[in-house]
Specification:
This protein is an alpha+beta fold. The chain has 9 helices and 9 strands. The longest helix is centred in the middle third of the chain and has 22 residues. The N terminus is likely disordered.
Length: 235
């Protein structure tokens, strides 16, 4: 009977366009743009701010009622075109001219926040030598290369990963600048870093997945890739 009640709650959540507030354990919601149900990890929640403006709640923590939109640029653009926000909130809602780009910037900021937390949790090895050592001795789930990192350094770390791992290679993340990595990890001149297995690093990867999906569409998710290759230079 309990299982049936839980399933009913999930079904109701998935079909309701407007929620009653953030619920961290919620598993599925209805996309207000496509009218299809998706896991909350594939969606972005939006609320209305004090000034009547739409606010992307990229961490699903802001108070108030919210609507959910599939986390891609195309879906958000379609939601704006179809006036989904006014319909969902049943009121006039202001949208900034760069609303889609603003949402993308917040998703990127969420990646950096998670990376900073991972660094504080000692789940990040920063610097070429430390990444190389981590690949030999630790369970590395992803390698970060600063945008513009030398192809030689990237190839050497890829080779190290192949030498020391029998399974799939770690994901590679290369859309962050050295300045962003420096700020997130609180150290200068970070060109390469490794994410060590653990909850904090999984959060970084989850947010990277969502940002990549927002930028490129849903292909990684549809292909069933548990961890996308967010950066793969030519070798």
């Amino acid at each position: 009977m309990i299982a049936g009640t839980e399933n009913a709650k999930l079904a109701n959540n998935a079909t309701a366009e407007l929620d009653n507030g953030p619920r961290p354990r919620e598993r599925a919601r209805l996309c207000a743009a496509t009218r299809t149900s998706h896991p909350v990890s594939d969606l972005i929640r939006f609320v209305v701010g004090p000034g009547g403006e739409a606010v992307p709640d990229v961490k699903s923590k802001l108070p108030g009622r919210g609507i959910w939109v599939t986390a891609t640029r195309d879906a958000l653009g379609e939601a704006i075109k179809r006036k989904v926000f006014a319909r969902g909130f049943k009121r006039d809602v202001r949208l900034a001219p760069d609303f889609v780009d603003h949402t993308e910037r917040l998703l990127e900021r969420a990646v950096l926040d998670a990376l900073a937390m991972a660094g504080t949790a000692r789940s990040v090895a920063a610097g070429f030598a430390k990444v190389e050592a981590a690949l030999e001795k630790e369970d590395v789930i992803a390698i970060l290369h600063a945008a513009g990192a030398s192809s030689d350094g990237i190839r050497k770390l890829q080779a190290a990963a192949r030498r020391h791992r029998s399974g799939p290679p770690p994901a590679e993340i290369g859309f962050l600048t050295t300045a962003q990595l420096d700020l997130a990890l609180n150290r200068p001149n970070v060109v390469h870093a490794a994410l060590l297995a653990g909850p904090a690093s999984e959060t970084v990867l989850a947010r990277c997945r969502r940002l990549e999906r927002f930028r490129t569409g849903d292909q990684h998710h549809q292909a069933g890739m548990a961890v996308p290759t967010l950066y793969r230079p030519e070798t």
